Amino acid sequence: MTAATTTATVASVRSYLLDLQARITTAIAAIDGTRFLEDAWTKAPGEALQGSGITRILEGGPVFERAGCGFSHVSGLRLPPSATQHRPELAGAPFEAMGVSLVFHPRNPYVPTVHMNVRMIAATAAGQAPVCWFGGGMDLTPYYGYDEDAVHFHTVCRQALVPFGADKYPRFKTWCDEYFYLKHRSEQRGVGGVFFDDFSEGGFDNGFAMMSSVGDAFLEAYLPIVKRRRDSPYGERERDFQLYRRGRYVEFNLVWDRGTHFGLQSGGRSESILLSMPPLVSWSYNRTTEPGTPEDDLYRKFLVRKDWV
Fold it and tell me: What CATH code would you report for 3-302?
């Protein structure tokens, strides 16, 4: 891939990502009845990371307590370590990265939290042609589990990957299960989904098409679940458990998440990187659940690896 070709491909990915962000936030605003605040930002001259982006955030809505969806397009002189774990030959190479990342935290404990991101990185090592690769995926984190929700979410994820080979869904589901596993807790973050990284199989066109298919599938995967659960009655007990489980979410994002690490290591904008954090959260020391309760069911039936489809 030549430098001129890379410029053209970067432009096409940027256009798609901006449109994806707009489509998703428009749909979420329509369900919530609350407008997203739009914050367009540009990195200051002289900073290690250069570029710009658009952060869209909805807070305090009747359906979503916090919904953040960010687009960023940045460049730097040296790829950070979190981006070269599987590509050591590109360590320290100049790079360009762009993507859309979102986390939606619902108000009702019966509506699951959801995460999705799609991204592209292009890098050029000295004396080599530019290299592009893609990453992303989505996963669902319920507070109270429902089989039909997990089955629906995974069915849509699988359908999005069918055009790219029968191996992709089982492969990327396993990758998601392994990635979102809290090793020190011996539990999954949620019911999983699909996740891929450092993907360049079949060249740029195939990688871009697969990334786009995953991004396009997000609303179909998540919105029916929101509509099904958003009016479920709940009380203080369910709210307390939701806030406790959000603590696990924060724990994963800060301690394990590669995307968070990439943004912070490369000099990214912390306000946008941390939009994934919930507005309210609680922690309890060595908390346990009572057998036979819905809270205990979450651990036994849903925070385990399982073939949902």
Answer: 3.40.1500.10
